[in-house]
Amino acid sequence: MSRLALTSALTATLGFSTTAPAQAGGGQSRMDRTERKVLRVINRVRAIHGLGRLYRNRSLSRSADFHSSDMLRADFFAHPSSNGTPFDARVRRFARRSARIGENLAWVSGVGERGIAKRIVSMWMASPSHRAMILTPEFRSAGIARRTGKLGSLRAVVFTADFSSVR
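Request: output the structure for the sequence above.
Response:
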């Protein structure tokens, strides 16, 4: 039987900017097939609700990839980075022009690749705070990252979705 876990998303998006963010490094900007599928499923959900599509943003993809990798490397699951950096400061290091940002996280264990994109988005849509991120009308772009590794003693697939009001 597969084991699922899902953390709470931030209950509100942030609409403020940080000052002089440090230069960010690392993180992949290209989304793989599964990551692109997650974005397509999110866009279908947004269309059903009369919202515009989200465009892939390389800076947000790097931010999401950096965070998914960081969580697996440091064996934790939370919005702040392993060094305590709040999620909004991390995202703005990669996507400096973002006026409003949001983030969803998810992890699954014991599942194969088939249908994982729909499953992740379904999990997010079943959670009011995650659903709010996906259905935020101001969001115009997203970066999705998926990394596989260990969380605790479990083999896990970790997803990070970063959203921005700037395309």
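The chain is about 35% helix and 20% strand.
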